[in-house]
Amino acid sequence: MRIVLKHIIHNILEMRLRSAIVLLTILLSTLILFIGLSLNEIINNTYKTMLQGSYGTANVVVSKKAEDGIPFYESTKLDLADIHIDNRLDMIQASGKSVLNDEHVPVTLYGLDLQAALELQIVDILSGSQELEGNSVIISQKTSSTYDLAVGDRIDVSSGGNSYDFTIAAISKSDGIYYSEMGDMLLLAQPDQVTEILGGGDMVSSTLLEVPDTELDSAITSLAETNQDFTVQKSSAADTMMRDEQTFQTVMMLAIIIIIVLISAYVISSLSKLIITERMPVLATFRSVGASKGMMNRVLMLEFFLYGVIGAGLGIILAVFLLPFAADLFNEYKEYGMETVVEYNMTYLIISVVFGMMFPALVSFLRIVRTNAKPLKDVLFNTASTLEKRSSWTVVIGIVFFCVAFVINGFNKYDDMLLSIMSILLLFVSIVLLMPLVLNGFSKLLSLCFKRSRAGELGLGIKNIANNKIVANNVSMIVVVFLLLIMVGIASEGINYYVTKAVSKDFDVVVTLNDRNDSLVHDIGEMDGVADTYLQVMSLGKSSIHGSEGIYGVLGVENFNEIGEFYDGINYLEIDEERLNGLDNPVILDDYYMNKYDLHIGDSVQIQPINRHYENLENAGPVTFIVAGSMDSAGFASSRDSALIPIDLYEDHFEPLFYELTLKLEEGIVAEELKESIADYYSNYSLEVATFDERIEAQKTTIDTLINGITIIIGLGMMVGILGISNNLMVSFNQRKKEYAILYSVCMSKGQIVKMIFAETLLTFITVAVIGLFGGFALNFLLTKFLYAIGMVTDFHFTFELYGMLCGVVAILLAISTLSLVRKVFKLHIMKELRYE
Q1: Closest Cα to residue 567, out of 482, 492, 507, 488?
Q2: What is the pLDDT of residues 268-289, one digit of tens each?
Q3: What does pTM read for this prediction?
């Protein structure tokens, strides 16, 4: 065994470039697999940490139902009955603004008991006092570094027309309650300092409770029963938000991993051909002295397994080092100081290591067995060939896969995600399988076009791209990565088009409320500069039609004409006024959904009310509606899943997710100034204010972060492809050395051989460009269904700008790869290659 290992290690070290390509391919495959599997869990954990961090060890959140328009309550009004409470923290919230470094900074103040906050672990003091006295406040480490503030510095906060002076007593870590410090400066103060801003009195706006985990469910039930005027919920559900990009991210990542693994398999498979070819004399020698075929199979498998061990080991070490940086690229909250929560999943690590170790041996297994199955004479006199010998079944399967991809897309009427993914994967596989056929056809077409040409090297180059496995493999790998980047470009361009052009600017300022407060809505609507307002009341519902489940954004509407006139993004297409005004249960659906489910005006639809976790509401069954109209809501919501129903039915059956008061301003009024005025004047209310531009920019930033991260993953895949191309050219040269020598000895100079090689490269580039163009259009057609499935129902188009840029990159890549081949041709020892002829 030691002799065999010594022989294998000697072989690995002997051909350093080839071994480096094998190891680097395995390294990158292992790295991409581990990072790809880990990213989704890391981003979700980061997101959950941010949401839950502000509650520390508290597991119950209590707030008042602001039906009377006042979100505050006396702490004594909360009846805790006989519930065992480990810790309790009452908080009062106010807002204002400050000027720091000549910059207007929004400020959020929390009045709380610092000792209770420390026990709940929502504050972690780094420096300064452990107590709050007088007008002292605590700031975060992020605020301290951003505005160059230190313990003892003073901060002036204006709120409600008054100015308040605070002194920094301590600096806390930017975690815990400071996870919610996004764009605002968060100050922790004594409760009486905050109540003074709000007008005085014993008031709190929320209460955090820590109860034993074993009693959590019973405690929430008991609290809800004894406190009818309060909202009681688990802290894990208090601030859950819907993230549409999560599904997109997961599916795209898995698809890219699969395709990159296939590219890696190409590289290793072609390398195994070269390695086994070089081992032929050794195999023949061992077999001629009595070694069995099985023993030689095990020796070769051991060599590829050793490649896997080394490559996987290096890959996983590098992956562990790079994972935090990769995860940070996908962290859309890092600009707010939210650190990426990186935890290494041992299951993913073991899967990646085992995959990396076994991958090269498994890919090479069939080739090893086929080689050793040959008679001894064939092994001794093996002659490598670049001739592409493929079964006609490969072509048939490729054609079938190509057709099935579009058939599936045609049958995918309900935009099912699995079917759309399957059609895209089948397109990629069919392109690879049909590549030899395409190259043969391309070669014959060019031969007809240049049959009168006197350039013999061009004619040879045209013929050489036909039935050539090296060219087929190179073109396949380039086209796969090419189309992957086209896919990302199409998605990115479509999303960018939506957020910059398609979405209608239906408002200037939006105020988000936790609870309905009609008096507050009226007061804001009466402010100077506000031209028009609309209170948007939204919930969720699901409906199963023809066996396909759809999710609706359900809006409760008091006047259907009013919402249509207010929002430019909602355009009524066909309305049955008789049903709309005469029925108690009318619904207006988007035209996209009506076409998708083959619904018509007058049809009945059952919508099941659900909560933000997509779970059925308790004691709420499906509600039957009659379709009374259709609309185009593309400019209102990207998913076009809006359903407008009467407000009475909405309040009877659905659970509001939020209330949004959208404002249109008078001409000449600056949205940013009005936003600050609302936040300042109504600082004693629990609300969030944003401008339209801020909303759009936030969406665009989130999508850009996702697209950039995925592009980097594909870039790593491109590195694997480059390795594959370099390897194929190296294999090609080794297999064609005798061909070059014979051509040189009978008719061609080395310069003409080089011209022939450049002709092959040029034809390879043209083939990639043509297949990339038509493949890109086909991919755009299939990809649209997938993007619709994840909720991006907008226009997606093939991007010629990206196509041209990628063609340029491919041209440079092929030119650089060919130069090394040209260098070898000029250094070729003709007599050495001809001595056996």
Answers
A1: 507
A2: 776 676 677 666 666 667 767 6
A3: 0.68
Structure tokens of 294?
């099985």
pLDDT, tens digit, 9 for 90 and up, residues 122-145: 898 999 888 888 889 999 988 898
Kindly state the DSSP code that residue 163 receives in the 8-state scheme: E
Answer for the pair 414, 596: CB distance below 8 angstroms, yes or no. Answer: yes
From residue 354, give the alpha-carbon distance in Å to each of 30, 137, 257, 269, 642: 9, 53, 16, 18, 47
In angstroms, rounded to a whole number, what is the distance separating the alpha carbons of residues 154 and 475?
66
Q: Is 364 buried (19+), middle (13-18) or exposed (0-12) by CB count in 10 A?
A: buried
Tell me the three state secondary structure of residue 22.
Answer: helix
Q: Which amino acid is at 311?
A: G
Q: What whole-number distance in Å separates Cα of residue 489 and Cα of residue 799? A: 7
Cβ count within 10 A of residue 416: 16
SS3 of 572, please?
A: strand
Are the C-beta atoms of residues 126 and 169 closer than 8 Å to each other? no
Contact present, 295 and 6 (Cβ < 8 Å): no
Torsion angle in degrees (nearest 10) through CA of 436, 441, 446, 452 = 120
Q: In Å, how far are 565, 627, 636 from 568, measured between CA atoms? A: 7, 22, 8
CA angle at 744 for the pair 738 and 748, rounded to the nearest 5°: 135
Tell me the Cα Rg of the chain.
34
Nearest Cα to Cα of residue 503 among 704, 246, 787, 793: 793
Strands (E), 173-221: 185-189, 206-210
